[in-house]
Amino acid sequence: xxxxxxxxxxxxxxxxxxxxxxxxxxxxxxxxxxxxxxxxxxxxxxxxxxxxxxxxxxxxxxxxxxxxxxxxxxxxxxxxxxxxxxxxxxxxxxxxxxxxxxxxxxxxxxxxxxxxxxxxxxxxxxxxxxxxxxxxxxxxxxxxxxxxxxxxxxxxxxxxxxxxxxxxxxxxxxxxxxxxxxxxxxxxxxxxxxxxxxxxxxxxxxxxxxxxxxxxxxxxxxxxxxxxxxxxxxxxxxxxxx
Length: 242
Fold this sequence. Notes:
This protein is an alpha+beta fold. The protein has 7 helices and 8 strands; from the N terminus they run αβαβααααββββαββ.
């Protein structure tokens, strides 16, 4: 019995090491996009100097606490896609709205948009002028689901799990000077990883990948896209969090 226990004691660290290892994320995303106007040129819109496009503070009706994370994911997607370096971040947008004394107008606009899906033209135009841009991007987190399953069991103890997160997001482009909805897109993205107990796949990773796909649709003029990829450990630093 003592020899068997000693053998298990030597084997356990190896099993733990195997359970902690990961090849990175498995990423699958699909987008559907619709353009209602052929202008403006998307590349010029997202790279204009001075900026003519800004990001509105994100909406997350089903999980309001994730609105800031949704906005950060879009910001990261714009930078990583190399298409939106000059687009004003949602933080800058919020500051300019507040300094212009339009916080209440913004609140009423956001509520009416959340309830009815339409931007009130008078408030949209007023806020667009205060921000100093003609076009705005509106990111929304429609919903998210996370789950896990055991990956390795040893002596009744689960040593690792496969964790996945699926997010449904949307992105709209509005013209503040005319009130037109210029373009919109929806995407569903699933990120899965084999991780250590008590860790999870970051929602931001899944959302960022979906936004990258939608931005590429906008720039390339595509109506839909599908992406499946492996994201290695070297590119996932900070994206598997405790």
